[in-house]
Amino acid sequence: MEVKKEQIGEIDRNPVYAFTLKNDHGVEITCINYGCIITKMITPDKQGNFENIVLGYDTLEEYMMDSTYLGAVIGRVGGRIKDAQFELDGEIYTLSKNEKDNHIHGGIKGFNRVIWDAEMLKKGDIAGVQFKYFSPDGEEGYPGNLEVKVSYSLNNENEFVIRYDAMTDKKTPLSMTNHSYFNLSGNLRRDILDHTLKLKSEKFLELDPALIPTGEMLHVGNTPFDFTHERSIKSGTVSTHPQNVLVGEGYDHPFCLSNNHNEEIVLKDSESGRTLIMETDEVGVIVYSGNSLRNEGNVRGVPMRKHLGICLETQGLPNAVNQPAFPSIIIDRGQKYNSVTKYRFGIDR
């Protein structure tokens, strides 16, 4: 097991470092302390070729200009909050508006736009890095001083674990996630339309025209949202279902998970043989098929385009602060917040 650290630049005289975790089988994860961004995941295909399976850039400057949240930690709250406000204990809190009249992914300067303190970790067959950030009361409109930790760890079972921990001195919403775009073809040689996905989920959330949950949970049966058996991502991009059309031909929907820590999310690419199995504590996963990726610029020499990557964002349900029927994402003063999502890399031969 190895952990390496190198400086890749600085922001306002604060150094930015890249950390590379590598296990004994050649699997590598690279991340930086700006936004806790995962820049590379190197895994083997069925022919033994080690290639990158996430979208990312080569320079810090590109990440600073990025508007698609490539690889970043999202917080305080992932997803959209309607009208950028919510009520808590009789008080209305107004958040920053960064998507028309709504708030998305933590705001203008969310967790993805800050430099985190970082410490390398190595213990036995585990290599990792722990990030820390202090989010002051009122940041982006959220109440409470919040101390946050995010740890990334890799082991020799080809398992990569993200753990989120936090503590607040005042009631506040918190629902963190990671926004990596996966592409199991390797080095972005194909888009993700022929990837298949399997979810242990029987319900998904209906979205309104602003892509905010209406509050209705719809059954997946007999729809393009039925991933209880393997389904291609392409099936949703060519669908005429109003919800697929609404989000730009594909998926950008929260799914309610019916199982946890039981191989509840499985992504596959049959041509490369790569598989990704995800397990989580969270109640939901947002499946986003990259419908809004524009034909602008490139990602490590590959033109950016629609459906080049897929996000699988494990988190609480979006806009839960305004939907009493959704599981609460409010943490109380002194309450310990923690959440774990595990990614296991494999091969189908």
UniProtKB/TrEMBL annotation:
Task: State the EC number(s).
Answer: 5.1.3.3
Q: In which pathway does it act?
A: Carbohydrate metabolism; hexose metabolism
Q: Which PROSITE patterns match?
A: ALDOSE_1_EPIMERASE (PS00545)
Q: Among its keywords, does the record have Signal?
A: no
Keyword Iron on entry: no
The molecular function terms in GO held by this entry are: isomerase activity
Q: Which UniProt keywords apply?
A: Carbohydrate metabolism, Isomerase
Reactions accelerated catalytically: alpha-D-glucose = beta-D-glucose
Q: Which family does it belong to?
A: Belongs to the aldose epimerase family.
Q: Which PANTHER family match?
A: ALDOSE-1-EPIMERASE, GALACTOSE MUTAROTASE
* Protein known as: Aldose 1-epimerase
Q: Which organism is it from?
A: Oceanobacillus kapialis
The taxonomic lineage of its organism, from the top, reads: Bacteria, Bacillati, Bacillota, Bacilli, Bacillales
